[in-house]
Design a protein that fits this description.
The longest helix is centred in the middle third of the chain and has 30 residues. It is built from two helices and three strands. It is an alpha+beta fold. It is elongated and about 50 Å long. Strands 1-2-3 form a three-stranded antiparallel β-sheet, with no helix packed on it. Helix 1 crosses helix 2.
């Protein structure tokens, strides 16, 4: 089974694409589409979570606050969980 793994540093210049633990050349246009696509997917997830929270709590302010919390702290939580479970 082929697994595609990509890693992006703080600066979007460095993108590492590996398939089956081998570094694979990827054109800059493909890397750019990959970065924008995954960032778009992340935004869609935040929007869906905010909508679900606003529908359950019937409060836009709680949904907005929780979404901002996820944006600011979510990546840190994911990193901690990834370090624990690897």
């Amino acid at each position: 089974m082929n697994w595609i793994y990509w890693e992006r540093s703080v600066y979007p210049v460095f993108v590492l694409v590996t398939i089956n633990q081998q570094i694979v050349y990827a054109p800059a246009a493909l890397k750019t589409l990959l970065i924008f696509g995954l960032d778009f997917l992340e935004a869609i997830v935040y929007i869906i979570v905010a909508f679900v929270i606003s529908a359950v709590s019937r409060s836009r302010s709680i949904a907005t606050g929780f979404s901002l919390f996820l944006v600011l702290v979510g990546a840190g939580i994911i990193e901690v969980l990834a370090a624990i479970f690897t």
